[in-house]
């Protein structure tokens, strides 16, 4: 089943892709990138005084904290330079 | 190691799609360490030549192809790449075929058409292809079938692209799997549209502009910002993402294909000159034709002519250009055979060969013109011969050339219109969803500057500072519009270039159809030169048409037979007219600056006109050559020569360097280098680096020949001050002739002259100014009349055998079609409005406009029927006509044809007649000009109260006195001036003549917005005399006349005075200066179209009419 989160995570990136991340105190190792997509921001809708919606990068990966493999969706927000764990399938 | 090539790249020449120039793409590719770059623009090869040259400059291999739409419907596309000479030939012909298949602007190919041109082509099937679509739709069976069909048609490879949109990666992997299963090579591409990721908003705006839709995720091709020129490591990551361990193989295959597709410039035909075929030995033919020419021109015995001819033929032989001259002679003869006025212009007039072949009529020896400016061993490429023809018959001239040289061997040259400030603001504004009216206001607030200057102009120009546009809300509009700067947006036919070649032309240039139906090369004038193609410039000159019309009208109205070429060129009456500066409508000498110069120079002969035309240029003005010349001419100063040896060279211009030809001779006298070398040196004066090289060479040679140091320095200063500006004397001489001829017509056949000028509109002023000028020259203006007005303006005797007036033309009526004009003229005479309605069959709005502009007044003079009544009758006729059409076919409508009037009873004489003010308003609206009286007369009350001085009374005022003037704005210019300021010149017309105003930067903070934004102006300034009759006004303040009039009417004169007494804002300088290599400063805003709406037609009445019923 799918669970939706919005937890901040720490992610290690190597050669342009995520290789490890820490979620809820546990280190997850990325085994495989299933899908990677990006979106540009809707700059034409931004108010001059409003908050910029950053470019976003999504990585759907197979990762594992131990032996059990799960599918995780990581989201990188270009404006705030932060990573979130957006979804988990297990 | 990553990918060292991009095979699928769109530049800005993919209109409203690509966002980078070929040069920028090549520069970036080289900086990223790539070895080869392809350019595969959408639906055309517009950027091909620039790409090849950019790659050569950047040290890259160049590949070429095209990204072509597949089928007339839908968005499927394939890329084709050319391999070798055969591939380039196939590519040119395929692109031509694509444009021939679709409607103009909607080219497409089919698999069959590609199969027909398959030699040397490789087809790339990417995600946008029919195969890619089938893969995306999870139809592997369909994809495999389509792929097989492509392989049967042409060499085919699969192109893998992953732009990281959702699902892109999976689709790319399936494409790769398909290629493997089918045994087809797969290559990696990135479907590049811009240089770097940060440029993606530009591509998104172009996506919206192309679709005429507002920006929204649904309307965007580019949702991920990944279509940039990715670096080798980035491309390797894409390959790994799609192919995993197969990434290396994918990259290798890509590299192998790119190596095959690198083109040599010679493959394109850039290595040689491709002239039309000429029968027999061209050079022997040319020598024989020139010998005939010597006899025909009566130059057989002339030693000078024989020597000059030998020199010119020598250069032509060494350059192998005999076929070129024979072809151009052929072309000029073809045009003249059709009875089209045709004159040579430019440096070509300096060549005796051109004269002997009948290309040009000026004898270069008699006018002391040099051939080296045109043709010299030191000049590279083909010489340029320009022919001036009547503008109205230019296309007829083209048709003659196409008929003679064949549709396969002839094509027009194209030109790319690029985004500038106004067009960029319009497209970005629409993409951002701004209301059309607001977009229009914003765009017109800007002068015609480059898009990249938008931000600077908002800060620097007073008319924009006061516009209130620089708000946060519009910030994104200005920011993005700036980034469209210089991108191509529209392909158009070059106004004059025609390619003449042989039947292989279509192997070397792609051709599409221009808007008027001529085959047109996708290459522009620079491209065709690089491609070694012969371009003949056939330039449509409106004044030539105006003069042809004037000559015909003089013959029609008064039976005068005029041969303009045979008119004596020293007519005192003509020069007397020119010296009065009343030269509106004349070629070259009607602008405010020229009228002032003419007033100071007081020309006495054709030679003076040659000098006048040459002096009125930014160069001479910048280097202050005008004042010393005028002083020497007026005798208040002795002519000064930089060295006595140069006196023969500079005597004709009293010591001032005016002509290119004089620069050549100065180099030759001082260094003994010969005229060919001198011409090379002159061309090098254009730029700073060249100037340094030439300077060192010049000093060394001149000193070695014994000239003293101070003299050498003095001469060098003169040469650099003159810079590369100045004028080619041959060119000025070929301009002086029509200048004189037009003035001669104005003096001796005045009505016919105005008929010509009003019909062909050759000048800078709105027609209403020319009309007013005609009034001042005593030419009666005959109103619009459906029984007398013709398609064009006519000269018409007012009484039998009496002087001629001019009759307003039907084509001046707003919105009237050529067909309607034709039917009106065909059906004359008309007995009544009803008769006219029935037989002329014009649209209702056109009939109403004809009524409003007085076209039926003559028919309803006795008893008079007011125009308003006639207008009601048009409505009734229109309704009756509709009722008639409801009658079933075959059944006659009830009532007699004349009975149409009875269909609705319109009582006559119940509506009030139009006032004089309403009539003028209607004339301005319908015809764009005030025919019955001058529009300013309605403001006479206020102008009298204020003590405004009329233009006609200004010569009586003392110099330096302060005056108030008023009038209709008829021109604004911001030419380059010596001080480097942005100076605004505005011309007002007050019904008694033109008033020329000068606004310096010190007053622009308070005046610029009004000058550019208003149609009717009042200005205060100081009178400045510039000569016998020449004067202008240095303005200190100005106001909108309509606004003042409203205050006057409402609150009285004292309030008007109070408004005018208000102090203006503090002055600020208008922008930075550009400093030229010659040391003279120039405003960044000089010589550009001004802000505000165009002044050629009056604005809608609501924008100027103070109030109804205020007529004087």
Describe this structure in words.
The complex is a heterodimer of chains A (90) and B (1112). The termini of chain A are close together. In chain A, strand 3 and strand 4 form a beta hairpin. Chain A is elongated and about 50 Å long. Chain A has one domain. With 90 residues, chain A is mainly beta. Helix content of chain A is 0%, strand content 64%. The model of chain A has no long low-confidence stretch (mean pLDDT 85). Chain A is built from no helices and 7 strands. With 1112 residues, chain B is of the alpha/beta class. Chain B has 6 domains: 264 residues, TIM Barrel; 107 residues, no CATH class; 67 residues, Arc Repressor Mutant, subunit A; 172 residues, no CATH class; 133 residues, no CATH class; 169 residues, Nucleic acid-binding proteins (OB fold (Dihydrolipoamide Acetyltransferase, E2P), Beta Barrel), CATH 2.40.50. In chain B, 44% of the residues lie in helices and 13% in strands. Chain B is built from 46 helices and 24 strands. In chain B, the strands form 6 sheets. Chain B has a 7-stranded mixed sheet, sandwiched between helices. A 5-stranded mixed sheet of chain B has the order 8-9-14-11-10. The C terminus of chain B is likely disordered. The interface between A and B is medium-sized, with 17 and 26 residues. Chain B: Belongs to the DNA polymerase type-C family. DnaE2 subfamily. Belongs to the DNA polymerase type-C family. DnaE subfamily.
């Amino acid at each position: 089943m799918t669970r939706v989160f919005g937890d901040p995570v720490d992610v290690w990136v190597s050669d342009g892709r995520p290789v490890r991340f820490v979620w809820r105190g546990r280190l997850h190792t990325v085994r495989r990138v299933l899908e990677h997509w990006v979106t540009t921001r809707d700059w034409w809708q931004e108010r001059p005084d409003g908050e910029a919606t950053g470019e976003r990068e999504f990585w759907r990966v197979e990762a594992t904290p131990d032996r059990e493999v799960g599918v995780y969706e990581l989201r990188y927000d270009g404006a705030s330079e932060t990573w979130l764990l957006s979804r988990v399938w297990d | 190691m990553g990918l060292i090539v991009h095979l699928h790249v769109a530049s800005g020449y993919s209109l409203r799609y690509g966002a980078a120039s070929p040069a920028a793409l090549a520069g970036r590719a080289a900086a990223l360490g790539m070895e080869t770059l392809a350019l595969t623009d959408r639906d055309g090869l517009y950027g091909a030549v620039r790409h090849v040259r950019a790659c050569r400059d950047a040290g890259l291999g160049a590949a070429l192809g095209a990204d072509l739409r597949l089928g007339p419907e839908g968005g499927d596309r394939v890329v084709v790449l050319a391999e070798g000479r055969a591939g380039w030939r196939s590519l040119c012909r395929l692109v031509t075929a694509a444009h021939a298949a679709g409607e103009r602007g909607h080219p497409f190919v089919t698999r069959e058409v590609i199969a027909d041109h398959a030699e040397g082509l490789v087809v790339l099937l990417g995600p946008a292809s029919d195969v890619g679509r089938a893969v995306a739709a999870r139809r592997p069976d369909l994809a495999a079938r389509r792929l097989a069909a492509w392989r049967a048609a042409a060499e085919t490879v699969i192109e893998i692209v992953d732009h990281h949109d959702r699902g892109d990666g999976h689709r790319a992997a399936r494409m790769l799997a398909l290629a493997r299963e089918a045994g087809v090579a797969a290559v990696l591409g990135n479907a590049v549209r811009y240089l770097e990721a940060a440029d993606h908003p530009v591509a998104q705006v172009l996506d919206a502009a192309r679709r005429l839709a507002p920006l929204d995720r649904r309307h965007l091709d580019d949702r991920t910002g990944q279509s940039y020129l990715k670096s080798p490591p980035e491309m390797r990551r894409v390959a790994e993402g799609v192919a995993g361990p197969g990434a290396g193989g994918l990259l290798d295959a890509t590299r192998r294909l790119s190596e095959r597709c690198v083109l040599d410039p010679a493959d394109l035909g850039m290595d040689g000159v491709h002239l039309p075929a000429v029968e027999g030995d061209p050079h022997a033919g040319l020598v024989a034709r020139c010998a005939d020419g010597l006899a025909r021109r009566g130059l057989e015995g002339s030693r000078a002519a024989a020597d000059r001819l030998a020199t010119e033929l020598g250069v032509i032989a060494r350059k192998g250009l005999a076929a070129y001259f024979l072809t151009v002679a052929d072309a000029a003869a073809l045009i003249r055979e059709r009875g089209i006025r045709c004159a040579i212009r430019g440096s070509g007039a300096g060549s005796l060969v051109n004269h002997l072949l009948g290309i040009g009529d000026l004898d270069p020896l008699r006018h002391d013109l040099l051939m080296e400016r045109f043709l010299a061993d030191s000049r590279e490429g083909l010489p340029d011969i320009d022919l001036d023809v009547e503008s109205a018959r230019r296309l007829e001239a083209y048709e003659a050339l196409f008929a003679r040289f064949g549709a396969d061997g002839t094509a027009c040259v194209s030109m790319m219109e690029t985004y500038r400030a106004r067009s960029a603001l319009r497209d970005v504004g629409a993409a951002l969803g701004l209301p059309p009216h607001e977009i229009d206001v914003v765009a017109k607030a800007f002068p015609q500057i480059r898009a990249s200057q938008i931000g600077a102009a908002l800060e620097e120009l007073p008319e924009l500072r006061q516009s209130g546009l620089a708000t946060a809300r519009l910030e994104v509009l200005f920011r993005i519009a700036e980034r469209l700067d210089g991108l191509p947006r529209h392909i158009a036919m070059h106004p004059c270039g025609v390619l003449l070649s042989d039947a292989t032309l279509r192997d070397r240039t792609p051709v599409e159809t221009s808007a008027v139906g001529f085959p047109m090369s996708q290459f522009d004038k620079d491209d065709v030169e690089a491609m070694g193609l012969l371009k003949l410039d056939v330039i449509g000159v409106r004044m030539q048409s105006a003069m042809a019309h004037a000559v015909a009208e003089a013959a029609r109205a008064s039976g005068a037979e005029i041969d303009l070429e045979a008119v004596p060129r020293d007519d005192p009456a003509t020069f007397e007219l020119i010296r009065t500066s009343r030269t509106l409508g004349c070629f070259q000498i009607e602008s405010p600056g020229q009228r002032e110069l003419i007033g100071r120079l007081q020309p006495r002969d054709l030679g003076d006109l040659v000098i006048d035309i040459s002096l009125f240029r930014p160069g001479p003005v910048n280097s202050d050559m005008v004042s010393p010349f005028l002083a020497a001419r007026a005798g208040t100063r002795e002519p000064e020569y930089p060295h006595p040896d140069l006196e023969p060279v500079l005597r004709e211009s009293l010591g001032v360097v005016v002509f290119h030809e004089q620069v050549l001779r100065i180099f030759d006298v001082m260094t003994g280098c010969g005229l060919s070398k001198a011409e090379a040196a002159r061309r090098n004066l254009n730029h700073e680096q060249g100037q340094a090289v030439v300077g060192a060479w010049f000093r060394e040679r001149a000193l070695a020949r014994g000239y003293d140091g101070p003299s050498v320095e003095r001469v060098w200063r003169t040469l650099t001050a003159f810079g590369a500006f100045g004028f080619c004397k041959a060119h000025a001489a070929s301009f002086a002739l029509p200048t004189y001829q037009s003035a001669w017509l104005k003096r001796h056949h005045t009505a016919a002259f105005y008929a010509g000028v009003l019909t062909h509109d050759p000048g800078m002023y709105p027609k209403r100014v020319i009309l007013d000028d005609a009034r001042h020259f005593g030419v009666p203006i005959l109103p619009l009349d459906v029984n007398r007005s013709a398609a064009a303006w006519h000269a018409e005797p007012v009484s039998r055998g009496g002087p001629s007036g001019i009759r307003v033309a039907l084509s001046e009526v707003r919105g009237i079609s050529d067909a309607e004009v034709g039917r009106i003229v065909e059906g004359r005479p008309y007995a009544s409005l009803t008769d006219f309605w029935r037989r002329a069959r014009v649209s209702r709005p056109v009939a109403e406009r004809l009524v409003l502009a007085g076209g039926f007044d003559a028919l309803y003079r006795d008893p008079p029927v007011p125009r308003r009544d006639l207008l009601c009758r048009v409505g009734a006729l229109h309704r009756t006509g509709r009722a008639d059409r409801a009658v079933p076919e075959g059944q006659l409508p009830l009532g007699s044809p004349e009975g149409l009037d009875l269909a609705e009873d319109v009582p006559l004489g119940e509506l009030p007649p139009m006032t004089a003010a309403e009539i003028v308003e209607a004339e301005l609206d319908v015809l764009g000009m005030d025919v019955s009286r001058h529009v300013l007369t309605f403001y006479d009350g206020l102008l009298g109260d204020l003590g405004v001085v009329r233009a006609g009374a200004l010569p009586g005022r003392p110099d330096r006195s302060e005056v108030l003037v008023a009038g209709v704005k008829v021109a604004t210019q911001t030419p380059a001036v010596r001080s480097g300021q942005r100076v605004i010149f505005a011309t007002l017309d007050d019904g008694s003549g033109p008033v020329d105003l000068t606004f310096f930067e010190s007053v622009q903070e308070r005046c610029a917005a009004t000058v550019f934004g208003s149609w009717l102006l009042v200005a205060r300034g100081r009178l400045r005399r510039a000569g016998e009759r020449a004067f202008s006004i240095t303005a200190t303040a100005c106001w909108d006349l309509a606004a003042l009039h409203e205050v006057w009417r409402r609150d009285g004169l004292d309030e008007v005075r109070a408004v005018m007494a208000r102090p203006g804002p503090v002055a600020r300088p208008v922008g930075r200066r550009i400093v030229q290599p010659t040391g003279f400063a120039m405003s960044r805003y000089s010589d550009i179209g001004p802000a505000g709406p165009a002044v050629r037609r009056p604005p809608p009445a609501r924008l100027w009419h103070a109030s109804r019923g205020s007529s004087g």
